[in-house]
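# nightly structure sweep
# worker-07 picked up a monomer target from the shared queue
# config: single-sequence mode, recycle default, output format = structure tokens
# input follows
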Amino acid sequence: MKSQNDKILTALGKKPITSWQIIGRFKCARPGARIYDLRNAGHIIHTEIIRNEGESHYAKYTLEY
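# output follows
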């Protein structure tokens, strides 16, 4: 069985993914922690903060090859 990190890395390999998508698709309560783990494993992942109207915001992650 694949870990959350493996599943997130596979998804990132296909296209950028948002923190909300990680929460919903992989039932991951702390997407930033999983991205941290992947970075520590040597993967280069860029973060873009997307701001909605008002004060809400979320992260969009992109894997660099």
